[in-house]
From TrEMBL, chain A:
Keywords: Transferase. Residues 364-387 are annotated as: Disordered. Residues 372-387 have a biased composition (Polar residues). This is Crotonobetainyl-CoA:carnitine CoA-transferase CaiB-like acyl-CoA transferase. It comes from the Bacteria. SUPFAM superfamilies: CoA-transferase family III (CaiB/BaiF). One of its GO terms (molecular function) is CoA-transferase activity. It comes from Arcticibacter pallidicorallinus. Pfam families: CoA_transf_3 (PF02515).
From TrEMBL, chain B:
This is Crotonobetainyl-CoA:carnitine CoA-transferase CaiB-like acyl-CoA transferase. It comes from Arcticibacter pallidicorallinus. InterPro entries: CoA-transferase_III_domain (IPR050483), CoA-Trfase_fam_III (IPR003673), CoA-Trfase_III_dom3_sf (IPR044855), CoA-Trfase_III_dom_1_sf (IPR023606). It comes from the Bacteria. Keywords: Transferase. PANTHER family: BLL6097 PROTEIN, SUCCINATE--HYDROXYMETHYLGLUTARATE COA-TRANSFERASE. One of its GO terms (molecular function) is CoA-transferase activity.
Amino acid sequence: MSRPLEGLLVLEFCQFLAGPSAGLKLADMGARVIKIERPLKGEAGRQLAIKNMFVEGDSLLFHTINRNKESYAADLKNQDDLNAVKELIAKADVITHNFRPGVMEKIGLDYASVKALNSRIIYATVTGYGNAGPWATKPGQDLLVQSLSGLAYLSGTADQGPVPFGLSVSDIMCGNHLTQGILAALIKRARTKQSVLVEVSLLESTLDMQFEVLTTYLNDGKKLPQRSYVKGAGHAYLSAPYGIYETADGYLALAMGDLNKIAAAIGCDISSLFTGGNSSFDRRDDILEAFSETFKEKHTKDWLEILVPLDIWCADVLDYKRAVEHPAFGQLGISQSVQVSDSLEIRTTRSPIRIDNRKLLSSKPAPKVGAHNSTLNQEFNIQNETT
Amino acid sequence: MRPLEGYLIIDFGQFLSGPSASLRLADLGARVIKIERPEGGDICRSLYTSNVVMNGDSSVFHAINRNKESFAADLKNPQDRDTIRTLLLKADIVMHNFRPGVMERLGFDYNSVKAIKPDVIYGEISGYGSEGEYKDRPGQDLLLQSLTGLTWLTGNADSGPVAMGLSIVDMLAGAHLAEGILACLYRKAVSGEGGLVQVSMLESAYDFQFETITTFMNDGGENPQRSLTNNANAYLGAPYGIYQTADGYLALAMGSIPVLGKLLGCDALASYADAAVAFEKRDEVKSILGQHLRTDSTQKWLSILEPADIWCADVLNWNQLFEHEGFKVLNMTQKVSMSDGYTYQTTRCPIRIDGELLTSGKGSPKLGQDNQTILTEFSL
């Protein structure tokens, strides 16, 4: 069977992570995704590097986020280029952008104008904080959104102050929501034959991510999260023993479970602390401390040999070096190669979704700026001298 | 019209990963029927995940399962299985998050369902896939965070492994399942064919880390190094982080160090000119910056940095956030009602379609509350 989105054409005006990560998901599921980029420099993400790592002039990050896409270079301030882009829009199924509110209006590619060019377009936007209110013009950047959303008070320990998630989690969640919205819109369009507007924001996505704990907060007299004082505690709202414990030679993660059974298995007397009922919550820190002392006595491997056969939910705590050596990493086929040029390959991840028993692999690399202008001009019969 | 109006989903899922996907699909317009065991139902109803009980079930259950119906059935009872099989004939989507092998034993695996409903879209979430030696291990969020290297990204260099304080892998797996199901629904709308969608928490956890694990696979295999203080991303240089001020905290994203130093009146920062230095000497820079920012209030620093277009923000807790106009304008919360009249506050779907907020006033179901209606409606 074919990939589910085969035949769909997506124009991506987005930059950086949130929007382009959605483009990547759609591409791996079969859509054809064309990045619309300014000539020469291209999207800003090409120069945003971590560890200063570049591959053929573009950051490794850019290659990671933009593989399996094409690129059409166009200066949206140039009338010929803009006309060419409008011809592409007329043929497209989806366009995405993450400009700040007002930018696309100025260019003449706001939803109303685009709808006039293509009455069946899915028009999808990402903002930082929505289009209204005092934050509408604030930079939509991941750490800032984490900080404003309350998320930074959920990890780490009570004495640490705010601890942000160490990845661009707001961008990534928002990219997933954008993908969902676009796909739902395509289903709607299949019935109505009409265009659909999809809007997501980093802040709404980051609040949605906290939907469980926010619901607890909203119905519990607005008590703020109480992180544990014990190093390694895993979740502000979960009872003992949830957390990561230091062992004689490393660490062990222990999830929720029957406290009496676990205490007996590891030989830790908590009878004065855990007395049933709510005491796994009320005495959380005391129980975590007692367990912390016990877990230091043996190696991680020895604990696993005791706990795993009892079906107690636990795991070793791996760093990247050990994680990629873990049998599941290879057996599930987490990584794939992308062919950047005849002589250059990079290893990266693949789509996490399997369709019809198939992994959605793709060796197609991220494009150079404007790499597909002539092909696209020809294919869509676009007359454009400047590109 | 909501995009998924008219679609029927039968969800065998429990806890968070699967049910978070069906919640999203429900808000997008689908009708979701939860299949629950008659004794106790979804384990998430119990105290396991929260000590806040609302109308008999945990607060977490109410968050995840609003806008759904509940059908109680004992899948070990042949008669109940027959009823469910008949119900599946009407389903567009069937989903579950049991460990591999469970649905096969019950006769509700993809091949069995496809045999009676050829165009079904079938979605499943596992912990570690349905192949390989880890397939039978518990797919639990903290364990997946721990096995995929994720715990070495948050916190400072001396913090040891630090879990992200939410069930983030569950939620991502749920999001990915929803995406696969939606893509297949689109294909079905166009071509009529059904499909199988499979997601595992392990694959979702690595997809989450696609930037950093790709870096690891191409930098000679160096483990991430968090900064000594104020870490917010192990792979980014100073000033990226959250800093204490005289009366609170301040988040600082990317920016030139000398420019920051000048704006903040901190001469010691003038010499860290290029980006490579801001990375290599980030512990030094963060320490200087940290000491300086403690000398005045968050508002003072914001009033200097924001006009200069430096990417910065206050750090809010929920009480402060909920009072802020920037939050209020989003209308992010909604009130929902259960069938017995109990009402509660929760959040809404984060996606807007055609300018509309996808709110829903329907609360979570009581266990088995919809059995009679469903039996009658589908002549079961």
